[in-house]
């Protein structure tokens, strides 16, 4: 049975990039409807798109009211899936609606980078901006936690749409969201509220596959190499963000009447420089790089899932926002490396050298840091839940705002002296010489354990709309 899909463009203008998006959607998803939520001040319609009747001007980075307006309209249209898109997205090949239908078979909501139970100590800028209003929001929801996701390409099933607009708490939510338009209130609210509503209404939420996070990220802008990788990836159907400039390489390639693959092949054969930094944003999943010399490599946003980097030299490397989930980094050298907001869940870092590394806002859940050198490392706002730091050296490290619930440590773990007594008093012995930080420290970890400022982490910064 064919599913009914509607793409909704949230944009305050109908410029050339807006038209790019419409043309690509019409070409690759011809069976779908396209609607425009006009968040600008100029009231107009555009041929080929449906008009959202509740469209209205919105404040910069405060577009949450648009989603509720869209839901109210779409709930009466009998769509199976409503997908919100933005003009810095570029669709590159057919098959997206089939992909969505498959992903949504057993789900009501699909979002990039879905993460549940955001810790109270989170230093994510959008969460920090919401903190003054969070008690009121949680009271309306009747919940004690929030989730988070990334805006571009969110998919809402019919049950999600109807659950929201028919809920008895919807008027109160509407009021909260309208007040959010005022100056001084939080921004990027949609990246917290929408994934949280799925839990509130008992709906099934899924994340896009981790492997395609490379192609839908905050920064850096997508490059010609990223386009080549996405064209070859079976689950990558669009790129984000693509610069909204007339001379952008990706836009030039996809606007060519020939297939982008052919244009890329020709450009490479002619020796044209298509790079924006050594290996930046590359897909290195499962790659054997054991012992490799990658000093000062630019790997920001790279996908390095399950790669073998044992004893590799990554000192002073740039890995901000990189995904290294389940990678092998035993005895790797990461001294002074930038890993702000990096995904290091389930990574083997036994005996690794992370002295002086910047891990601000990084995700280290279930990581094995046994015997790792973390002296003077910055772990401010990092998520270390259920990590093993037995025998690790953390002297001089900053743990301000880090989430330490269920971290395992041993008598030989060297904690920073300023945290030692609090950690000891919050832990229980689980075996001879082995200790577990109690779950209650999930809240205690939010205490300002020192007064040094936390630098803003780079993991999914606020959306610019």
Explained architecture:
The chain contains 13 helices and twelve strands. With 465 residues, it is α/β, with parallel strands linked by helices. The strands form three sheets. A seven-stranded mixed sheet has the order 3-2-1-4-7-6-8, with helices on both faces. Strands 10-12-11 form a three-stranded antiparallel sheet. A two-stranded antiparallel sheet has the order 5-9. Helix 2 (64-74) crosses helix 6 (158-165). The longest helix has 13 residues, at 16-28. The chain is globular, with a radius of gyration of 23 Å.
Structural topology:
Blueprint: E1 5-11, H1 16-28, E2 33-38, E3 50-51, H2 64-74, E4 81-85, E5 90-91, H3 96-103, E6 109-111, H4 125-130, H5 134-141, E7 155-157, H6 158-165, H7 170-179, H8 190-200, E8 205-207, H9 224-232, E9 238-239, H10 249-255, H11 260-269, E10 408-410, H12 417-425, E11 427-431, E12 434-437, H13 441-444
Parallel strand pairs: 1-2, 1-4, 2-3, 6-8
Antiparallel strand pairs: 4-7, 5-9, 6-7, 10-12, 11-12
Summarize the structure.
Helix content is 25%, strand content 10%.
């Amino acid at each position: 049975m064919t599913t009914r899909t509607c793409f909704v463009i949230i944009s305050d203008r109908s410029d050339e990039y807006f038209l790019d998006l419409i043309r690509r959607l019409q070409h690759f998803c011809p069976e779908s409807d396209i609607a425009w939520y006009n968040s600008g001040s100029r009231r107009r319609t555009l041929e080929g798109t449906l008009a959202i009747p509740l469209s209205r001007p919105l404040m910069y980075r405060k577009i949450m009211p648009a989603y509720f307006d869209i839901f109210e309209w779409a709930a009466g249209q009998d769509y199976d899936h409503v997908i919100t898109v933005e003009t810095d997205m570029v669709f590159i090949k057919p098959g997206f609606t089939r992909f969505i239908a498959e992903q949504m078979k057993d789900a009501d909501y699909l979002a990039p980078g879905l993460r549940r139970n955001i810790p109270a100590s989170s230093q994510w800028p959008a969460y920090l901006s919401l903190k003054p209003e969070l008690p009121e929001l949680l009271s309306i929801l009747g919940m004690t936690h929030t989730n988070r996701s990334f805006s571009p390409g969110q998919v809402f099933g019919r049950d999600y749409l109807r659950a929201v607009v028919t809920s008895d708490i919807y008027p109160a939510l509407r009021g909260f969201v309208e007040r959010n338009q005022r100056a001084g209130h939080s921004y990027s609210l949609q990246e917290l509220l929408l994934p949280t509503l799925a839990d509130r209404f008992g709906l099934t939420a899924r994340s896009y596959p981790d492997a395609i996070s490379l192609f839908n990220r905050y920064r850096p802008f997508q490059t010609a190499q990223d386009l080549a990788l996405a064209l070859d990836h079976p689950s990558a159907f669009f790129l984000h963000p693509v610069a909204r400039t007339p001379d952008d390489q990706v836009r030039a390639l996809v606007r060519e009447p020939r297939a982008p693959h052919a244009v890329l092949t020709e450009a490479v054969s002619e020796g044209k420089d298509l790079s924006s930094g050594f290996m930046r944003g590359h897909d290195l999943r499962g790659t054997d790089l054991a012992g490799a010399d990658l000093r000062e490599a630019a790997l920001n946003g790279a996908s390095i899932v399950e790669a073998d980097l044992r004893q590799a030299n990554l000192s002073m490397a740039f890995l901000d926002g990189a995904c290294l989930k389940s990678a092998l980094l035993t005895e790797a050298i990461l001294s002074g490396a930038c890993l702000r907001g990096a995904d290091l869940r389930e990574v083997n870092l036994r005996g690794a050298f992370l002295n002086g590394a910047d891990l601000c806002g990084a995700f280290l859940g279930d990581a094995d840091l046994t015997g790792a050198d973390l002296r003077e490392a910055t772990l401010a706002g990092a998520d270390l839940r259920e990590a093993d730091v037995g025998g690790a050296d953390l002297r001089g490290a900053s743990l301000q705002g880090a989430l330490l619930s269920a971290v395992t440590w041993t008598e030989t773990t060297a904690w920073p002296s300023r945290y030692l007594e609090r950690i000891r008093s919050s832990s229980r012995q689980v075996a001879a010489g082995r200790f577990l930080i109690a779950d209650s420290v999930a809240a205690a970890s939010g205490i300002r354990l020192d007064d040094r400022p936390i630098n803003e982490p780079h993991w999914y910064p606020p959306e610019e709309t």
